[in-house]
């Protein structure tokens, strides 16, 4: 991410068009806390490596909870990437993480199949889908986010 005025202006223009911006893979690689100060992001995407290690490494749980709290404190939405189990989903609901991506919802799909999935609103949860709809309070349920394959 180049910090030049050109990049910042491009991001502002995208936001004026209604595009929401996400900081991907937060907590790993090139993503940093500094970006949250310098750029106008709408979302933090929690890297899947933290979700994968949630059950086996207590520090991963602490990191995920801290990222979600950071997002709440900064007024940013958090998306958890790589959600594959109901245990992970339950943890996200308890932490009030509003959005998720992962194979629990659906693998990445070609555009046409993604459209069909969104229309059907089944998201791969089968009979357990009703668990997500039990609580009408939007702040305590996790919304699946679809991924489109390249």
For this entry, give a set of tags:
43% helix, 150 residues, TIM Barrel, alpha/beta
List the helices and strands and how they pair.
Blueprint: H1 5-16, E1 22-26, H2 33-38, E2 43-46, H3 48-52, H4 58-74, E3 77-80, H5 86-94, E4 99-100, H6 111-120, H7 129-133, E5 143-144
Parallel strand pairs: 1-2, 2-3, 3-4, 4-5
In short:
It contains 7 helices and 5 strands, in the order αβαβααβαβααβ. With 150 residues, it is of the alpha/beta class. Strands 1-2-3-4-5 form a 5-stranded parallel sheet.
Mind explaining what this structure looks like?
The chain is of the alpha/beta class. It has a single domain, classed as TIM Barrel (Alpha-Beta Barrel), CATH 3.20.20.450. It is 43% helix and 11% strand. It contains seven helices and five strands. Strands 1-2-3-4-5 form a five-stranded parallel beta sheet. The longest helix is centred in the middle third of the chain and has 17 residues, at 58-74. The model is unreliable at 126-140 (pLDDT under 50).
């Amino acid at each position: 991410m180049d910090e030049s005025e050109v990049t910042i202006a491009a991001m502002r223009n995208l936001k004026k068009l209604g595009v929401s911006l996400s900081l991907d893979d937060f907590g790993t690689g090139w993503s940093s806390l500094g970006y949250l100060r310098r750029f106008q992001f709408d979302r933090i995407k929690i890297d899947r490596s933290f979700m994968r290690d949630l059950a086996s490494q207590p520090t991963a749980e602490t990191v995920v909870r801290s990222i979600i709290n950071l997002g709440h404190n900064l007024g940013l939405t958090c998306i958890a990437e790589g959600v594959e189990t109901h245990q992970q989903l339950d943890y996200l609901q308890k932490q009030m993480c509003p959005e998720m991506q992962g194979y629990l919802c659906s693998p990445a799909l070609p555009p046409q199949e993604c459209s069909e999935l969104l229309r059907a609103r089944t998201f791969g949860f089968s009979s357990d889908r009703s668990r997500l709809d039990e609580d009408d309070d939007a702040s305590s349920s996790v919304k699946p986010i679809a991924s489109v394959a390249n």
